[in-house]
Design brief:
Number of helices: 23
Distance between the termini: 79 Å
Structural class: mainly alpha
Shape: globular
Strand order of the largest sheet: 1-2
Number of strands: 8
Bound molecules: heme C
Length: about 500
């Protein structure tokens, strides 16, 4: 090869070309540097706070003045238009879709009312509207404790900051209703001064401590899931820690799988309620989204909740995190196609295929469980003794725990299809085992035929079958919404106005 000097001495014009090219490159580099500096300046400018507020400010609109893009996208969680095949942000009455659930939860508040989740914007409203919190009035308290507010509002960490978690959980649900008015928002996930992600719920920090882990030592990518694990997890109310307090606890001490958590509950002989028909000591799974997600391939490859549910978005040359948390199927381009090259239709089909296949077996398990409860009820009726029923009821408890664990997380079938299929299969096995034992027991009690499947093909029929007085429940709720809630709003408005006056002074 010839040296540069040789080339230039043979063809002098090459020297000039080289010189010009260098000039152009230097010029372009200069442009690039100036653009970077400008963007930096822009970013600093954009983050200059327009308003000041204290660390636990619960009003999202105030934070929104400093971070309008994030706030505007957050507000879109109020949009209820999108429906996917099974999920989405629309209101869906799950008991109407699947009346078997009414029988599975007989004797427990979920049989009254259970809906598919909407956006974060509705968290407080939906908690007030749901029949499970009851229709409290001046002399009748709610059947639920204040613990039920914990995952609904940034007013929760605000209040916990001053009175501590135990005092927060204490008392029936209506007693702190006037305090909890702002829906899930900025202060739930962010530190107001640094805007870093932060854990605002003590139950998660305490669960980590008991597992010997330090939640302040996790990676940034882990935090992008852990902020969600403040609420999207399995939990229960522990009555043994403080007097008269239903303390919020995550049952993770023995591990985070469905089997580990069952061992934890069994060790305490804990049950959420006694089934009204079978008398089985039941567990209610909440929504173990985080725990199930951890068993799936996306978690194993280091993908976080925020990667799919809060993807980056660009607007006016600024890249920011889309705070419209929703079903990713409404935004495949940003949620999936940053990592996957497949067409939109194909990716949606992947999700539906997993959901369809799992739901087929989940429905079968529900039917087996309805039969098992009804057959156990018949055995009691015919004079079965405690010791004859014990093993059977234990199998029913185990089977339904697995069903609920799989069904309660609406993203489970996609987040971890193999684990969810395993759990449902284990539930089917246990419910069949219970029914074989029940058939033998019923025969020994002189009943040797198949019990007919109850007529429960609508929510109304199923609720009548378990003996719920829906008219009364609905009337109490309507009265509560008409009288007590406006009173709460008035008190809250005065409280917040007083804060603003204090700041202005
Ligand atoms: C459920 C948790 C959650 C809530 C609620 C939330 N954020 Fe965020 N926010 C995040 C996550 C996750 C990120 C990405 C952080 C990262 O990767 O560093 C983020 C990032 C941000 C950023 C950094 C810039 C960006 O866009 O990436 C700002 C500013 C921000 N959020 C503002 C807000 C405001 C304002 C609100 C209230 C209207 C809010 N957030 C509510 C979780 C939340
Ligand atoms: C403070 C508690 C809390 C935190 C933190 C939280 N969520 Fe939620 N989330 C809820 C509640 C409560 C609902 C149901 C709201 C309703 O139905 O009114 C919900 C609903 C949802 C939905 C359903 C929305 C729809 O349109 O169908 C998704 C998806 C979701 N959350 C994902 C996340 C992700 C991802 C994170 C973390 C970045 C997160 N959530 C953090 C409590 C929380
Ligand atoms: C941040 C990157 C990332 C994002 C975002 C992402 N994926 Fe994935 N996905 C992966 C990786 C990595 C794997 C594992 C592939 C492997 O290791 O071979 C995977 C695996 C899968 C699989 C096969 C595994 C299974 O569970 O059966 C499906 C289907 C899938 N992704 C669909 C989606 C869909 C739908 C979305 C959007 C809602 C999405 N992914 C978003 C990275 C991502
Ligand atoms: C790889 C992408 C991906 C990741 C990561 C992911 N999800 Fe999902 N999630 C989905 C998809 C796809 C669905 C199904 C949406 C549907 O059926 O409309 C879903 C559904 C949900 C739903 C029900 C949504 C609804 O409309 O009711 C919730 C809640 C949820 N996910 C929470 C989480 C939480 C919490 C995490 C982290 C622990 C997480 N997701 C991680 C893709 C993801």
């Amino acid at each position: 090869m010839k040296s540069l000097r040789e080339i230039i001495s043979n063809k002098p014009y090459m020297g000039w070309i080289l010189f010009a090219a260098t000039l152009v490159i230097v010029f372009l580099l200069g442009l690039l540097a100036s653009s970077i500096i400008e963007r930096r300046a822009e970013a600093v400018f954009a983050y200059k706070p327009q308003v000041d507020y204290p660390d636990w400010e619960p009003r999202n609109a105030l934070w929104g003045k400093n971070f309008p893009r994030e706030y505007q996208s957050y507000l879109r969680t109020s949009d209820t238009a999108f429906r996917s095949k099974y999920n989405g942000s629309a209101f869906i009455d799950m008991l109407e879709v699947d009346p078997r659930m009414v029988v599975l939860w007989a004797g427990y508040s979920f049989s009254k009312d259970y809906n598919q989740s909407r956006g974060h914007y509705y968290a407080v409203t939906d908690n007030r509207n749901i029949l499970r919190t009851g229709g409290p009035a001046a002399t009748t308290p709610s059947p639920q404790p204040n613990t039920c507010w914990t995952c609904k509002s940034p007013d929760v960490p605000r209040l916990m900051k001053t009175i501590g978690p135990a005092e927060f959980y204490k008392g029936t649900w209506e007693s702190k209703g006037h305090e909890i008015v702002n829906p899930i928002g900025c202060a739930d996930c962010h530190d107001a001064t640094t805007m870093n992600l932060r854990i605002s719920r003590p139950a998660l920090t305490e669960a980590f401590q008991r597992m010997g882990k330090d939640i302040t030592a996790v990676t940034h990518q882990e935090m992008r899931s852990l902020v969600c694990a403040q609420c999207h997890v399995e939990y229960y109310f522990d009555m043994s820690r403080f007097e008269d307090v239903q303390y919020l606890v995550y049952p993770w001490d023995k591990g985070m799988t469905v089997d580990d958590m069952e061992k934890y509950y069994d060790a305490y002989a804990f049950s959420d309620w006694t089934h009204a028909i079978s008398k089985a000591p039941m567990l209610k799974a909440q929504h173990p989204d985080y725990e199930v997600f951890l068993t799936g391939v996306h978690a194993k490859r280091g993908v976080a909740c925020a990667d799919c549910h809060m993807p980056y978005k660009s607007e006016g040359g600024q890249k920011f995190t889309d705070h419209h948390i929703q079903s990713p199927l409404n935004n495949i381009a940003n949620s999936c196609q940053v990592c996957h090259r497949e067409e939109t239709d194909e990716l949606i089909a992947d999700v539906y295929e997993r959901q369809d296949r799992i739901i087929e077996n989940r429905d079968k398990l529900e039917e087996l469980l309805v039969r098992a409860h009804v057959e156990a009820g018949k055995a009691w009726e015919l004079g079965a003794r405690e010791e004859q029923m014990e093993g059977i009821l234990s199998l029913i408890r185990q089977a339904q725990w697995r069903w609920d664990y799989a069904a309660a997380g609406h993203g489970n079938s996609f987040h971890s299809p193999v684990e969810i299929s395993r759990i449902i299969a284990a539930g089917i096995g246990r419910s069949q085992e219970a029914r074989v034992k029940l058939a033998r027991l019923l025969a020994s009690l002189g009943f040797n035929e198949e019990l007919p499947y109850p007529d429960i093909d609508t929510k109304a029929k199923a609720q009548a079958f378990i003996g719920l007085d829906m008219q009364k429940l609905n009337a109490e709720k309507a009265e509560f919404l008409r009288t007590m809630v406006p009173e709460w709003m008035k008190q809250a408005e005065e409280r917040e106005k007083a804060w603003d006056e204090k700041t202005r002074q």
